[in-house]
TrEMBL record:
SUPFAM superfamilies xref list: 2Fe-2S ferredoxin-like, Ferredoxin reductase-like, C-terminal NADP-linked domain, Riboflavin synthase domain-like
Domain FAD-binding FR-type residues, every copy: 14-115
UniProt KW keywords: 2Fe-2S, Flavoprotein, Iron, Iron-sulfur, Metal-binding, Oxidoreductase
PANTHER family: CARNITINE MONOOXYGENASE REDUCTASE SUBUNIT, NADH OXIDOREDUCTASE HCR
Domain 2Fe-2S ferredoxin-type: 236-325
Name of protein: PDR/VanB family oxidoreductase
Cofactor entry: FAD
InterPro entries: 2Fe-2S_ferredoxin-like_sf, 2Fe-2S_ferredoxin-type, 2Fe2S_fd_BS, Beta-grasp_dom_sf, FAD-bd_FR_type, FNR_nucleotide-bd, MRET, Riboflavin_synthase-like_b-brl
PROSITE patterns tied to this protein: 2FE2S_FER_1, 2FE2S_FER_2, FAD_FR
């Protein structure tokens, strides 16, 4: 996109802190919105549309997009769907994070940055609406053209509809029990110069949007995943060497072991969260060598630039990697 100006994967001041749930609202069937604040009312770090935070729950860490007002420095809001397949995260949040409860958080972090464009096409599936809400506000604020196509199981299951109501002309709701499915081919087939396409939702929707935008001039797909991307079978693992430049430690990473595990075992200080290549916590700079990217965070252009790597899942194509660790 020639006119798009990346607002960047802004480097925010990341914090780890206990925040209090100051408001809990049921915004749809199975969806709660939690507003978090510092117990002493202090300002929270700045964030930009697309940012997420980690919730450090007992024995697990989960990522949630910030979906409130970027200008409100004292409150962060997240939306949480009670996932019937929950491995404990959303169930814990729904059952225990009532008003007055505290929860440890880490962040904010942004791997889904809002770029400046003349037009925006937003596509949301279910709870994937959350990162798009502040993006819609930002698009509105800069006077850009935008439209949202929001797919859900039923109207009752689709959160934040009241916030979207003032923009009825730009918003197409697609509750699957009321109308036909989203015709993505028709939507993406329209000529769209200088359009940024943003999508968050189930993997099938993300894959379809990525595929639909590929090879369309002037259209760039930006997607966010909260579960690992389904990929072709990666090449078999081979051993390689990692040189941690700041620590002065060199380790061999054997087949079947992640860079993260190998360097951590050698005493290098590393930070991780999901261990599935989706949250971006373990990202570090590549100083030399070629990465074999296996994460679900970096965009195609970021992969090509080869500047960073997610060390929990990615490996090396070269025999040696020098990392800023
Ligand atoms: S720990 Fe989440 S991407 Fe590596």
């Amino acid at each position: 996109m020639t006119t798009a100006e990346a607002l960047g994967r802004a480097t925010f001041r990341e914090v780890e802190a206990d925040l209090e749930v100051v408001r809990r609202e049921v915004v749809a069937d199975g969806v709660v919105a939690l507003t978090l604040a510092a117990p002493d009312g202090a300002e929270l770090p700045q964030w930009s549309p697309g940012a997420h935070i980690d919730l450090l729950l007992p024995d697990l860490v989960r990522q949630y997009s910030l979906c409130g007002d970027t200008r409100d420095r004292r409150h962060w809001r997240i939306g949480v769907l009670l996932d019937p397949q929950s491995r404990g995260g959303s169930r814990y949040i729904h059952e225990h994070l009532r008003e007055g409860a505290t929860v440890r958080i880490r962040g904010p972090r942004n791997h889904f940055p809002f770029v400046r464009a003349r037009r925006y096409l937003f596509v949301a599936g279910g709870i994937g609406i959350t990162p798009l809400l502040p993006m819609i506000a930002a698009a509105q604020a800069i006077g850009a053209e935008w439209e949202l196509h929001y797919v859900g199981r039923s109207r009752a299951s689709m959160g934040f509809l009241d916030e979207l109501a003032p923009h009825a002309e730009q918003v197409t709701l697609i509750p699957r029990d009321e109308r036909d499915r989203l015709d993505l081919d028709a939507l993406l087939a329209r000529p769209r110069t200088d359009t940024a396409v943003y999508c968050c939702g189930p993997e099938r929707l993300l894959t379809a949007v990525e595929a639909g935008c590929r090879d369309r001039d002037g259209t760039t797909a930006h997607v966010e995943r909260f579960s690992a991307k389904v990929t072709d079978e990666p090449a078999p693992d081979t051993a390689f060497e990692v040189d941690c430049q700041r620590s002065g430690v060199t380790v061999t990473v054997p087949a079947g072991t992640s860079i993260y595990s190998a360097v951590e075992a050698a005493g290098v200080d590393v930070l991780g969260s999901c261990m599935e290549g989706v949250c971006g916590t373990c990202e570090c700079d590549v100083l030399e060598g070629v990465a074999d990217h296996r994460d679900s965070v970096l965009s195609e252009s970021e992969r090509e630039s080869g500047e960073t790597i997610m060390i929990c899942v990615s490996r090396a194509r070269s025999e040696r990697l020098v990392l800023d660790l």
